[in-house]
Fold this sequence. Notes:
Elements lengths: L26 H15 L10 H11 L5 E2 H8 L3 H13 L3 E6 L2 E9 L1 H23 L3 H23 L2
Antiparallel strand pairs: 1-3, 2-3
Helix pairs in contact: 2-5, 3-4
Amino acid sequence: MNDDPRPSPDRAAGDTPGHPPAGDLDVDAFTTAIEQFHRFYVRLPVPEKLSVTTLSVLDTLAFSDGPLRLTELTRSEQVSQPGITQLVTRLERDGLVERRPDPSDGRAVLVRITEAGRRVGRSRHADRTRHLEPLVARLTSGQRQAIAEALPALTRLAELGRARP
């Protein structure tokens, strides 16, 4: 057994056995930080008493390039087909989405967000910003700068994740 605390030449410091090295980023530690932040973030109070899945569907539709099929929402939201159908029915009843026949396939339905649905998303974003501002103010200027510098990379990482098949 090697008692030398220094990483071996084939593994960088912070690399976890079984996980490929990612340069100078400890992906395991990054994953843990993102998971901890996500647990806190999704539980921030929101003015609309909508489920996380409902809000996620609205976000997915708001940031898509156009209407989506129910099958695409099922896949992106990781919800069963009957579950997404029930959810979209409720959202349509509440005026947050609209369903239309898919002109390229009469059996399929396209779902698009309405302006009321977009308002829910904007309200949620503004409310979360209000909750985060005082917490961010408690960080050191170096911590705020580190987050600011990480924003382009986090945005790109999200783009890469959305682009995955």
